[in-house]
Amino acid sequence: MLPLRDSQPSHKIPIVTISLIVFNVVIFVYQQSLTSLRLYEFLCRYAFTPIGLREAIHAGKFYYPLITSMFLHGGLSHLIGNMWVLWIFGDNVEDYLRPIKFILFYIATGIIAILAHTLAYPNSAVPTLGASGAIAGVMGAYLILYPRAKVLTLIPLMPFFVTIPAPIYLVIWFIIQLVSGFVRGSSGIAWWAHVAGFLGGLVICVGGRNRRKRQKQAAN
Fold this sequence. Notes:
The protein is mainly alpha-helical. It has helices at 15-33, 36-46, 50-59, 65-68, 76-97, 99-120, 132-145, 166-183, 191-219; strands spanning 2-6, 150-155, 160-165. The protein has one domain: Rhomboid-like fold (Up-down Bundle). The chain contains nine helices and three strands. It is globular, with a radius of gyration of 18 Å. The model has no long low-confidence stretch (mean pLDDT 91).
């Protein structure tokens, strides 16, 4: 299922969402400019591996690929797919959270996703890269924040276009990730990172909305 657009309008220019897309594109263009050897060295340095995190913890050092890996992509389709979904759902989540909280939220859910991948494959030395864990967090937040929105979706196997409620689209997407995590396992896609990122975004936004309600009730 390919989301084409949602029905929820933005009230402000999504500065952070646009900046994230531009930054990811710039980094990808830089990756493409590297020779095979230099690209390999670049990914070894900035992509994430669970075993690299473990070694950094043992050495008492901060493992910066926790952050940098979110801005790397393995190919053009990987980049376009992630940035397209970020554009559709990110502007509205940024609209609600405001720019500073949104960027913190984005990074936090990205880290949650990466840590979940680490728990699933603690001894893996295979580089993990991509923004999909953080974007899954954005999708989880969207489910909570905009339950009445609708998503125009392309069903490529038919193919045909259908407008469905956003919660249905997002829950189907989540179920696909969850089932794939059990069935397909280590197929080259970090399914459990997607699952954890989505749940992380959902839980953070549920907590944030409840806190806002309590604050409003206390003010009254």
